[in-house]
UniProtKB/TrEMBL annotation:
TM annotation in the entry: 15-37
Domain of life: Bacteria
Protein name: K+-transporting ATPase KdpF subunit
InterPro entries reported for this sequence: KdpF
Entry keyword set: Membrane, Transmembrane, Transmembrane helix
Name of a matching Pfam family: Potass_KdpF
Organism in which the protein naturally occurs: Azospirillum picis
């Protein structure tokens, strides 16, 4: 029989999801700003 869900595991998963999404978004934003500043490199 499994233990009842406390919600903590789900909260940890959501924090990881949001952190990963934030990193991807920041990286994409940096790439696009660099491409706007230096279009001759692309």
């Amino acid at each position: 029989m499994s233990m009842p869900a406390t919600g903590f595991e789900g909260a940890k998963a959501m924090i990881l999801d949001y952190a990963l999404a934030g990193l991807v978004t920041a990286g994409l934003l940096a790439y696009l700003v660099y491409a706007l500043i230096r279009p001759e490199r692309f």
